[in-house]
């Protein structure tokens, strides 16, 4: 795994790694599709077991992740720099199927640790939040150009923000807003009292989901992943917030329903979460939920 030279620490520590290996159960020769390959933490462990680089496809929409993956995986793996919906449409159109499919959703640690990407407000940065920097829509466009109702709508839908209307009103009144710290201060005005987490956390989550169309990508891709699973193939999805988990849970429950023609068998009746040891070493694992299924 690539190391962060300054701290001699990995750029991104994969969550629920042992659990992913348990549920995907990679075997020599298995084909593998990693839809969010990131910094290759899960992929390198899966590949160590399948030993089938030429039957491996790694997808990520982030350019930095892809350039690191290119250095790490150079034994014939297919690398695709695209969002996973686009990649899945293209791959399924070719009739490609896989024995193992993994989606570890959301952002990577480098997204959060680099203030210039604009995902965080603890350090000031531009209002960006694009995972794919070729994309035109950024957080700045939403904050500075969308109308108040539309902003309130995403705050309600994507983060269940109780003060969505008030925050949208404050945002529109404060334009132009150029940095993450500035936005966080504006949101704080709607929540003057004490709160355990910074009140802007929900607003930042909602903006990030909207900028990257995270829920839409997931909803439209799950059926394609089901199509691309080979018979007996296994799908594992890790989500990081309840909106994502609900989509995954409902899709899997529906495909594994109590019908003669159900296509999937659930491997996880309940979501698998991180154990205490992992939580101590990897705080990102706190909200991770893994669900897995096998194709009949
Ligand atoms: C949680 S990290 C994955 C880390 C990876 N499993 C590892 O072990 O290094 C999520 C990655 O998925 C990518 N990503 C998120 N949503 C995506 C999407 N819709 N299409 C493609 N890549 C996506 C992000 O750019 C990020 O690199």
Given the helix and strand composition, which structural class is it?
A: alpha/beta
What is the CATH topology of the largest domain? Rossmann fold
Number of helices: 13
Order of helices and strands: EEHEHEHEHEHHHHHHHEHEHE
- Overall number of strands: 9
What's the mean pLDDT score?
95
CATH-assigned homologous superfamily of the largest domain: Vaccinia Virus protein VP39
Number of domains: 2
What top-tier CATH class of the largest domain fits best? Alpha Beta
Strand order of the largest sheet: 5-4-3-6-7-9-8
Low-pLDDT parts are 1-5
Bound molecules: S-adenosylmethionine
How does CATH name the architecture of the largest domain?
3-Layer(aba) Sandwich
Cα separation of the termini: 34 Å
What kind of sheet is the major sheet?
A: 7 strands, mixed
CA-based gyration radius = 20 Å
Morphology: globular
Task: Provide the β-strand percentage band.
Answer: 5-15%
What is the helical fraction, as a range of percent?
Answer: 40-55%
Task: Explain this structure.
- This protein is an alpha/beta fold.
- The chain has 2 domains: 3-110 and 214-295, 3-Layer(aba) Sandwich (Rossmann fold), CATH 3.40.50.150; 115-212, DNA polymerase, domain 1 (Orthogonal Bundle), CATH 1.10.150.
- The chain has helices at residues 17-24, 41-50, 63-72, 84-93, 109-113, 139-145, 148-159, 164-174, 180-188, 200-212, 214-228, 242-255, 276-281, and strands spanning 3-4, 9-10, 32-34, 56-60, 78-81, 98-104, 229-239, 264-266, 289-295.
- The strands form 2 sheets. It has a 7-stranded mixed beta sheet with strand order 5-4-3-6-7-9-8, sandwiched between helices. Strands 1-2 form a two-stranded antiparallel ribbon.
- Strand 3 (32-34), helix 2 and strand 4 form a beta-alpha-beta unit.
- Helix 7 (148-159) packs across helix 8 (164-174), helix 7 (148-159) crosses helix 10 (200-212) and helix 9 (180-188) crosses helix 10.
- Residues 1-5 have low confidence and may be disordered.
- S-adenosylmethionine binds at residues 12, 14, 36, 38-42, 59-62, 65, 83-84, 104, 106, 108, 131, 217.
- S-adenosylmethionine binds next to helix 2 and strand 4.
């Amino acid at each position: 795994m690539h190391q962060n030279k300054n701290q001699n620490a990995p750029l991104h520590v994969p969550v629920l790694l042992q659990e992913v290996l348990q549920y995907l159960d990679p075997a020599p020769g298995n084909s593998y599709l990693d839809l969010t390959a990131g910094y290759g933490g899960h992929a390198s462990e899966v590949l160590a077991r399948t030993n089938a680089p030429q039957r491996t496809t790694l997808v990520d929409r982030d350019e930095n992740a892809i350039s690191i993956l290119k250095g790490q995986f150079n034994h014939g793996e297919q690398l695709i720099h695209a969002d996973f919906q686009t990649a899945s449409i293209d791959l399924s159109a070719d009739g490609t199927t896989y024995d193992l499919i993994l989606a570890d959703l959301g952002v990577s640690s480098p997204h959060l640790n680099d203030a210039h990407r604009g995902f965080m407000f603890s350090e000031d940065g531009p209002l960006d939040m694009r995972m794919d920097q070729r994309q035109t829509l950024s957080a700045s466009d939403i904050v500075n150009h969308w109308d108040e109702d539309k902003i309130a709508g995403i705050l309600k839908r994507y983060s269940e923000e109780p003060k969505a209307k008030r925050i949208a009103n404050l945002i529109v009144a404060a334009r132009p807003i150029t940095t993450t710290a500035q936005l966080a201060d504006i949101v704080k005005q709607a929540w003057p009292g004490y709160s355990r987490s910074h009140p802007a956390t929900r607003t930042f989550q909602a903006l990030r989901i909207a900028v990257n169309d995270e829920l839409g990508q997931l909803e439209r891709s799950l059926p394609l992943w089901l199509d691309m699973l080979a018979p007996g193939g296994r799908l594992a999805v890790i989500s990081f917030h309840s909106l994502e988990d609900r989509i995954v849970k409902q899709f899997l429950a529906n495909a594994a329903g109590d019908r003669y023609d159900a296509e999937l068998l659930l491997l996880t009746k309940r979501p698998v979460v991180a154990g205490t040891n992992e939580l101590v070493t990897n705080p990102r694992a706190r909200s991770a939920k893994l669900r897995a299924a096998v194709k009949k």
